[in-house]
Amino acid sequence: MRVVFAGTPTPAATALQALLDSHHDVVAVLTRPDAPRGRGRRLYPSPVAELAEAHDIPAIKTSTLKDESVIDSLAEYKPDCIPVVAYGALVPPNVLTLPRWGWVNLHFSLLPRWRGAAPVQRAIEAGDKETGVTVFRIEEGLDTGDIFASAPADIRDDDTAGSLMERLTDQGAQVLVDTLDAIENGSATPTPQSDDGATYAKKISTEDTRIDWNKPASAVDQAIRAVTPDPGAWTLLEDDRIRIGAVRPITDPRDPIEKSLSLAPGEIAWKKNRAWVGTADYPVQLGSVQAPGKKMMEAGAWVRGAHLANGLDNDKSAHNKSAQNNPAERDESYNDTPHEGTRFQ
Fold first, then answer.
1. 289 by DSSP, 3-state: which?
2. Do 125 and 223 form a contact (C-beta atoms < 8 A)?
3. Helix (H/G/I), strand (E/B), else coil: 29
4. Extended beta strands in 94-215, E state
5. How do residues 53-77 score in pLDDT, each as one tens digit?
6. Does the annotation flag 192 for ligand binding?
7. Which CATH number fits domain 2-201: 3.40.50.170, 3.40.47.10, 3.40.50.2300, 2.170.120.30?
8. Where is this region: Disordered (predicted)?
9. Pair 183, 1: CB distance under 8 Å
10. 112 a known binding residue?
């Protein structure tokens, strides 16, 4: 089958590689224009464009499919089908009929759940235990077309958007190839997609990635994992924007220190190499933290370098500091008491 592949990011490149390894003939790719990256803001091709170039496959780089010259270029390749994986632009109705077998899309959810731009992130954020991949025929509606194939996948308790997407990408690439095989040999049996149970996965905004410490620990955990590693969850410490990596809810504290924690939402406690933050119910233990102008680091290292006010433990810390040269004055009952008081906003 002659195909023009449409896609842009790394997951799309994985699917493209699977097609290149199959018997299908990828005659061109459709991808977004080169985009700035890094501190120098140099223009770089998309992962799909890079892979296409490595295989001497022509790339049509465009941010819109409404341009007549782009439509003419697509028509010149006479594709039988155009598979799409995260291309990043809508397909106008007049272009949908260009390939004889239409456009098919690999979507990273079990449709009709999580139609839209951020299905992986919204599934984790919602606390779903299962998701998957779906290949469907693109029509005028948003992710509403007939379904060719789907495959389920578990969402693990420690999954981030990154780890889950990695598994779905590999799974989805094979489902996409199998679907094109079935379309080509006539065994494909697309079924109409129901609207029952449909949900919308809206695009992740900057405000979506700000942590709300007034929510329960489970919701804070899910919200952070949903945007890890990109674009990343953040919070404020005074005027500094602090990026927070995955956390661990302390729902069944057995450690003596964690058992004694009683923190208000956003309140930070720390002891040696560990740090915790209060939520609406249980505290969470911080895993990694990134301060402005710094690299992501372990929470303990961040605490040691952040010079946080000791808050509720000021008097104890001062007492122990003054007793460093006189062990007889040191109250050993302070040893297991975490410093508390500073708050994330």
1. strand
2. yes
3. strand
4. 103-107, 115-116, 130-137, 147-154, 200-201
5. 999 999 999 999 999 999 999 999 9
6. no
7. 3.40.50.170
8. 310-345
9. yes
10. yes
98 is in an annotated binding site: no
Indicate the CATH number of 206-306 among 3.30.420.40, 2.30.30.30, 3.40.50.300, 3.10.25.10.
3.10.25.10
Angle of CA points 164, 235, 245, to nearest 5°: 35
The pTM of this model reads 0.89
142 is known to lie in a ligand binding site: no
Non-local CB neighbours of 262 within 8 Å, separated by 6+ positions: none
Interaxial angle between packed helices 10-20 and 47-54, expressed in degrees from 0 to 180 and rounded to the nearest 10 = 30
Q: Is the distance from CB of 106 to CB of 83 less than 8 angstroms?
A: yes
Q: Which helix (H) or strand (E) covers residue 20, if one does?
A: helix 10-20
What count of Cα atoms within 13 Å lies in the side-chain half-sphere of residue 49?
A: 16
DSSP 8-state assignment for residue 141: S
Sign of CA dihedral 168, 172, 175, 179: positive
- pLDDT (tens digit, 9 = 90+) per residue, 279-307? 999 999 999 999 999 999 999 899 888 77
Query: From the CB of residue 94, how many other CB atoms can be counted at a distance below 10 Å?
Result: 10
The domain spans of the chain are 2-201, 206-306
Q: Which residues on neighbouring strands pair with residue 37, listed in sequence order?
A: 42
For residues 335 and 333, give the distance between their C-alpha atoms in angstroms, rounded to a whole number. 6
- What lies within 8 Å, CB to CB, of 133 at 6+ separation is 106, 107, 108, 109, 110, 150, 151, 153, 168, 171, 172, 175
pLDDT, tens only, 165-213? 999 999 999 999 999 999 999 999 999 999 999 999 999 999 999 999 9
Cα–Cα distance, 206 to 185 (Å, whole number): 45
